[in-house]
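[Q] Does anyone have a clean structure-token version of this?
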Amino acid sequence: MHSIAAAGFVQYHEIAEDIDKMIASADISGPTILSDSSVFFMVHILNARITEVPAASLTASHHVIRWFFARWNPGAYQLVD
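[A] Here you go.
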């Protein structure tokens, strides 16, 4: 999804409603795992949302940060020697 959006194959206005829903309920409908690709995707759609609807930037940022911290659990990882 990130590659399609980043390459510009779809315009923001075509997927705006889906992006709004995904960001508003990122903890439920966002990517389920925390990986490089999921973080890049969330940052991309957050930037698109902020660019298109600047007044919603604070709320959108809060949702994405909440998604990130819901997925990130540093105590769950083990260091490998």
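[Q] Thanks! Anything notable?
[A] The chain has one domain: 2-72.
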